[in-house]
């Protein structure tokens, strides 16, 4: 839990640098509201007079929309100053002036925990706002409780192109979890799929050189490097104190990339011959566990790994015990940046994940959905939500300093109760950095300028504090910049998605914890050699018997319906 | 006379009022939530909403879980050992501390042993992983220098229970010591004087004056702690355990926590809470009765 939160904080701080909604500045497609409106067929429109829609149509007299909000201390200190409040700021003024929408809050929580509590209370008491954000399980229970309305097609009907394209960027149906009885009960809040995907193999270049090896092309290369990093004293201190591969007690999460190299996706639902199967029980996963057991036996993995949470492993990385890890595109910022504090020679480089057959692995992408906007059953103007999105996407890029992120660090985009992120923003900036360096032109806007300045701070001045940032999205190719690897996965359409996108099924919520207990116990015993690999088959039999078969059936029923 | 007494009592009762209100609002009214243990509770429908009643399904879900006996056993062993040592060690320590003449030394010692009480398990968890590490930890370095094999205290299922019990007692015994020291200072000094006159030595005084003088507070704390027989310490175990020691380290609370992670399962969580409360109530009642019968201890 703590590690997850820590990771999220890291991602968010990384994203904050890059700003979140200002980034569509380079989306040069101009939006002609009337053209957009006439170009699309009005689907599922409820009243005939709505056939001709105006994405920016102003309500007269103004309408009121209630939301619920959450603010942090940081946000309060930087942005809610000089009389600015969530209900009275540049965005609420814009919504009122341009769209005739008055933004009100039912309540504002001061922490994520408080938000969760108040949301549960709101749901429990039935006193819900007009629009709010829910997770998949909350969405399901809100649909069951019949408190939200059908919002199918409103993005397509009212959205401008910049908003609509968020829902077609990836090749999966973003609405799949919001469907029930042929209706669509939510507008998904989209999110980049690569930010939290384990798609990078980080390796210390200085250690590679020390042991006389080159970056890996195949899985055998990875094992050879791991062996050399363990036994050939890569840090040159004449002590046997280094390990081949860094993993913590959350090894499944840490090792994502290693599993993907064998087309193994433990914990995810994958389609095989038209049926969904759980990756945990497949032979591919068994093979990886066998390899890990061999590495553990050879001392290539910290013998105490299964006791150590991720932050402990981060400390070990900082104290130069590890030279290779599977991870995320932002790992340069944390924890790898820490390993340069004591040793600026720790030259971590991001590589593509090799696959067992010598090609590039297919990494598993994040869900791509941050939450679901739902609209109160009794609210008369669901399309107002989309109109607000339209305005966000128009005003934000036009004047980022006023609406997105001010020069003095105000997070203005958070003043709006709705947000429309720019998907794969980090990748966008990486591409722009390459273009800028190549063409020699100047950055197009303030945000781009600040990213460019930071990258330059490393390339020109070797400023250690921005090393991790540079490795994440600076200028360069695969093996230098993490986003270059992400770009490769997109260009070659390699991302794999969890095929199950519904809420937890009945058996999942009844038996899921039993199955995951069974799994983590069996896996850790196999890796550490307390049980031989035969234990895996026993685990699979138990897993199926104790509810796994039921879950598989439920998941496939859902899949048949959703397809 | 009577009027004065009444008004005196009235002000005392008024002083009791805030505590009573807190008790009613936060302990008695929430008891209504027990109904959740018998429902398939959906938060969105509301507490008073049209929830589906499922009878004992939530209890069944827990009792038919293949891990429930292992979990119950671990909880009982860990909690019982913690209660026993958590009573014995502070009592012994308080008595010995009381015998120390130098008050500066006594106070320093007292402060030092109760300091760990203020550290959170999140913090201590990280520290323990370091100092108990078989390769680099200070404890195992000591063992190695004495010629023993290193022990993986937190990784070996055999050692996990003793490790959590001892570290918990280490963290908390200084805190309980304070209560016993307070009880000792309340003992009438004239008892010691007459004991001395009767020729009792220091050790005899400890056994025959100090210990009986503490018996009331010991009985009370023992009775209260027996109610905790199903609380093996979530914070501690959660920060120290891992899949490798589930077989000896997984307790009811961590088990239910993992259950809740998959889905917000209010029903089974409430069922477990109710089960724990009933067991605690029975044990406290029985032990209170025993204390009354055999030690003539009573609160009212």
UniProtKB/TrEMBL annotation, chain A:
Region annotation Disordered: where it falls in the sequence:
28-52
State where composition is biased (Polar residues). 28-48
Signal as a keyword of this entry, yes or no, is yes
**Keywords (A to Z) from UniProt:** Signal
> In the record, which residues are listed under signal peptide?
1-25
InterPro entries in the cross-refs: Bact_solute-bd_prot1
This one is known as ABC transporter substrate-binding protein
List, alphabetically, the CDD domains matched.
PBP2_AlgQ_like_1
- Signal as a keyword? yes
| Coiled-coil segments | none
Q: Which branch of life, at top level?
A: Bacteria
Q: Which PROSITE patterns does this one have? A: PROKAR_LIPOPROTEIN
Automatic annotation (TrEMBL), chain B:
GO CC, sorted alphabetically, is: plasma membrane
Q: Where in the cell is it found?
A: Cell membrane
Q: Which Gene3D superfamilies match?
A: MetI-like (1.10.3720.10)
The UniProt entry's GO biological process terms, in alphabetical order, are: transmembrane transport
User: What's the main place this protein lives?
Assistant: membrane
Location of the ABC transmembrane type-1 domain: 72-287
Q: Which residues cross the membrane?
A: 12-38, 76-97, 118-139, 173-192, 213-234, 269-291
Quote the PANTHER family the UniProt record gives. Answer: BLL4140 PROTEIN
The name of this protein is Polysaccharide ABC transporter permease
Organism lineage: Bacteria, Bacillati, Bacillota, Bacilli, Bacillales
């Amino acid at each position: 839990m703590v590690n997850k939160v820590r990771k999220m904080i890291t991602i968010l701080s990384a994203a904050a640098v890059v700003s979140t909604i200002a980034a569509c500045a380079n989306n040069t497609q101009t939006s002609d509201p009337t053209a957009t409106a006439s170009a699309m067929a009005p689907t599922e429109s409820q009243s005939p007079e709505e056939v001709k829609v105006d994405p920016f149509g102003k309500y007269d007299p103004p309408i009121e929309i209630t939301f619920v909000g959450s603010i942090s201390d940081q946000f309060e200190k930087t942005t809610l100053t000089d009389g600015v409040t969530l209900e009275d700021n540049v965005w609420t003024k814009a919504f009122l002036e341009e769209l005739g929408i008055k933004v009100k809050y039912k309540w504002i929580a001061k922490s994520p925990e408080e938000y969760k509590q108040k949301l549960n209370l709101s749901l429990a008491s039935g006193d819900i706002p007009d629009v709010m954000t829910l997770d998949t399980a909350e969405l399901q229970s809100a649909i069951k409780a019949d408190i939200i309305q059908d919002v199918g097609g409103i993005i397509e009907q009212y959205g401008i192109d910049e908003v609509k394209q968020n829902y077609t960027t990836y090749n999966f149906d973003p609405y799949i979890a919001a469907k029930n009885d042929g209706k669509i009960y939510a507008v998904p809040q989209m999110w980049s799929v690569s930010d939290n995907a384990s798609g990078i193999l980080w390796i210390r270049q200085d250690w590679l050189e020390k042991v006389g090896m080159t970056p890996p092309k195949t899985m055998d290369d990875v094992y050879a490097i791991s062996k050399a990093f363990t036994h050939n004293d890569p840090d040159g201190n004449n002590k046997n104190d280094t390990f081949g591969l860094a993993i913590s007690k959350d090894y499944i999460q840490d090792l994502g990339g290693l599993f993907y190299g064998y087309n193994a996706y433990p914990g995810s639902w994958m389609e095989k011959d038209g049926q969904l199967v759980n990756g945990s029980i497949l032979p591919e996963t068994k093979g990886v566990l066998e390899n890990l057991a061999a590495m553990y036996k050879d001392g290539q993995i910290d013998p105490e790994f299964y006791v150590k949470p991720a932050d402990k492993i981060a400390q070990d990385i900082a104290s130069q015990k590890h030279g290779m890890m599977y991870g995320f595109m932002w790992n340069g910022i944390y924890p790898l940046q820490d390993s340069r504090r004591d040793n600026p020679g720790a030259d971590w480089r991001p590589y593509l994940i090799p696959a067992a057959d010598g090609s590039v692995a297919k990494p598993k992408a994040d869900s791509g959905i941050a939450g679901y906007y739902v609209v109160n059953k009794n609210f008369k103007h669901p399309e107002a939500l989309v109109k607000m999105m339209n305005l966000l996407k128009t005003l934000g890029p036009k004047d980022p300093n006023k609406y997105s992120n001010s020069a003095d660090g105000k997070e203005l985009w958070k003043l709006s109760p709705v947000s429309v992120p720019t998907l794969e923003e980090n990748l966008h900036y990486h591409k722009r950095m390459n273009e800028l360096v190549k063409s020699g032109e100047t950055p197009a806007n303030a945000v781009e300028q600040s990213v460019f300045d930071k990258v330059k701070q490393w390339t020109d001045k070797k400023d250690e504090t921005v090393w991790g940032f540079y490795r994440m999205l600076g200028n360069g190719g695969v093996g230098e910049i993490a986003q270059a690897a992400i770009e490769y996965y997109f260009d070659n359409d390699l991302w794999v998605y969890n095929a199950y996108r519904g809420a937890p099924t009945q058996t999942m919520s009844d038996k899921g914890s039993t199955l995951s207990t069974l799994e983590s116990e069996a896996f850790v015993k196999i890796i550490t050699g307390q049980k031989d690999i035969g234990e895996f088959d026993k685990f699979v039999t138990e897993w199926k018997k104790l509810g796994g078969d039921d879950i598989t059936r439920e998941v496939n029923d859902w899949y048949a319906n959703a397809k | 006379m009577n009027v004065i007494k009444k008004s005196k009592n009235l002000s005392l009762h008024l002083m009791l009022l805030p505590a009573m209100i807190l008790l009613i609002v936060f302990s008695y009214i929430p008891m209504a939530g027990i109904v959740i243990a018998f429902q398939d509770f959906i938060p969105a429908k509301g507490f008073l909403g049209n929830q589906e009643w499922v009878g004992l399904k939530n209890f069944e879900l827990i009792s038919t879980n293949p891990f429930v006996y292992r979990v119950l056993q671990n909880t009982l062993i860990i909690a019982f050992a913690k209660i026993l040592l958590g009573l014995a060690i502070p009592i012994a320590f308080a008595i010995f501390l009381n015998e120390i003449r130098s008050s500066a030394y006594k106070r320093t010692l007292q402060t030092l042993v109760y300091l760990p009480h203020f550290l959170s398990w999140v913090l201590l968890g990280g520290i323990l992983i370091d100092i108990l590490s078989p390769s680099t930890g200070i404890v195992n370095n000591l063992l190695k220098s004495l010629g023993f094999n290193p022990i993986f205290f937190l990784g070996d299922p055999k050692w996990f229970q003793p490790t959590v019990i001892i570290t918990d007692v280490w963290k908390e015994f200084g805190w309980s010591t304070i209560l016993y020291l307070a009880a000792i200072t309340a003992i009438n000094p004239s008892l010691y004087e007459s004991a001395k006159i009767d020729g009792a030595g220091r050790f005899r005084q400890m056994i025959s004056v100090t210990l009986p003088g503490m018996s009331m507070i010991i009985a009370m704390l023992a009775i209260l702690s027996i109610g905790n027989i199903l609380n093996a310490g979530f914070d501690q175990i959660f920060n120290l355990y891992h899949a490798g020691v589930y077989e000896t380290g997984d307790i009811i609370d961590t088990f239910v926590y993992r259950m809740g992670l998959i889905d917000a399962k209010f029903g089974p969580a409430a069922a477990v809470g109710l089960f724990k409360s009933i067991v605690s109530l029975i044990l406290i009642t029985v032990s209170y009765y025993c204390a009354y019968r055999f030690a003539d201890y009573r609160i009212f």
